[in-house]
Amino acid sequence: MAQLWGGRFTKETDQMVYDFNASILFDQKLIEEDITGSKAHVTMLCKQGIVTEKEKTQIIKGLESILKDALDGTLPITTQYEDVHSFVEANLIDRIGDAGKKLHTGRSRNDQVALDMRMYVRKHVKETDALLKQLLEVILKTMEANLDTYMPGFTHLQKAQPTTLAHHYGAYFEMFKRDRGRMQDIYERMNYCPLGAGALAGTTYPLDRDYTAELLGFYGPTLNSMDSVSDRDYVIEFLSALSMIMMHLSRFCEEIIIWNSNEYQFVEIDDAYSTGSSIMPQKKNPDIAELVRGKTGRVYGALMSMLTTMKGLPLAYNKDMQEDKEMTFDAIENVENCLVLFTGMLASMKFRKDVMAKSAMNGFTNATDAADYLVMKGVPFRDAHGIIGRLVLYCIEKNTCIDALSLEELQAISDKFEADIYDAVSLETCVNKRLTIGAPGPDAMKQVLMLHKAYLKD
Ligand code: ARG
Predict the structure, then answer these.
(1) How far apart (Å, rounded) are the C-alpha atoms in residues 324 and 302?
(2) What angle is formed at CA 225 by the lines to CA 224 and CA 227, rounded to 5 degrees?
(3) Rounded-to-integer distance, Cα 316 and Cα 302, Å
(4) Which of 42, 108, 124, 147 sits 20 to 30 Å CA-CA off 373?
């Protein structure tokens, strides 16, 4: 056990207590952030005359050699150290001697870990945003190629009105675009540097917090030292936004699983993104979509865990906050993997356009348009609704559809029907006439596509 705080203790820590308290097994993920933060801290200490130029150079070289050796495995990170901060400081002192003992001047592990975690989350906010952008690019490409790929639109998972694949994908474009917006918002709010807050009340050293913040790419220093060491809001915001991404991915996966089923056969998932069964030779299962849907649960779990951990904590730092890491790391890793895999699956998925169009044609998806036709002929909408309702009933009894009826059959139900009814309820007309912005009509869709393209260019 190499501890930083042995001075006031007369007994060795009980081994189980040591293990329970230690975080090295998971916070070693923060080693790059820890060393980047320490380099900035010592650079600032030197500028302020708190350490000498020579000490600074020694410390920075030492820190860089530790990072290199830890990353290439020549310096193993072991449970001999309590946490990543102790690991780095102990090894620095081993390597450079007395100068290493000055690194922690004007700093506490409380502001150190607050900084490390903030930089780690900040990095992954950016990474998540980049992965979302790649997903949006794939969605946009599919939209551009499928303005006239007809498919049924559903409510209650029952066929409702015809739409297009471009329009359906467009709904997901909006969702993932909002997810990117959330990344931007979180970044703006969290990008302030907690270093210099000390344990909770700042320090008596003349630290230049603006300078450290600038060195580390923050907008500036945080403005209350107690809040700085005890704020994990940004972790919760990030987990919340990640949960939202997973919710969107999960909905999309659910649809793909349905579309991929034997009953629908709208899509074919690429072999590279499917798996087989050990017993049923005919099987090709949508496991990736199912796993993404499944992993949504653990990301929600991380959010609930963090909200609950924080809810009763008095100011300022409490050891409970060490629990901010494992589930957050797990959530980040899983969301990033899910985004990569989902994007790959989507990019390689094939559509059975004929099956989709055929499906859009039955199930009375043109019933609303038939009613609108009667409205155009002067029938009040409520009456038109009733007439088409009776027409649908007649079709169900005869096992046919509206467009297959003869004009005589139609006119027997309403004398307003004329020969132009067939064009009015064709699949093409039903979609193409929906021209208000946001609707599936190709002219409306083209306007939206232009906006999306410009958005992705920025
Ligand atoms: N390992 C701790 C954490 O992750 C570092 C801060 C420890 N500070 C303390 N006073 N015990 O939160």
Answers:
(1) 9
(2) 70
(3) 22
(4) 147
Tokens representing 406? Answer: 């003869």
Q: How far is the CA of 67 from the centre of ligand 1 (A)?
A: 20
pLDDT digits over 88-101, tens only? 999 999 999 999 99
> pLDDT of 138-168, one tens digit each?
999 999 999 999 999 999 999 999 999 999 9
Q: For residues 267 and 337, what is the distance between their CA atoms, to the nearest angstrom?
A: 23
Catalytic one among 85, 108, 156, 274?
A: 156
Known catalytic membership, residue 108? no
Q: Are residues 118 and 100 in the same domain?
A: no
Residue 9, amino acid: F
Question: HSE on the CB side for 187, CA within 13 Å?
Answer: 15
Q: Can you give the residue range of the structural domain that contains 116?
A: 110-145+165-207+218-352
What is the residue type of 132?
A: L
Q: How far out from the chain centre does Cα 441 lie?
A: 30
Q: Is the CB of 83 under 6 A from ligand 1?
A: yes
Tell me how many domains the chain contains.
Answer: 3
For strand 192-193 and strand 158-164, is the pairing parallel, antiparallel, or unpaired? Answer: unpaired
Nearest to 48 by CA among 156, 241, 208, 202: 208
Last residue within a domain, chosen from 306, 328, 352: 352
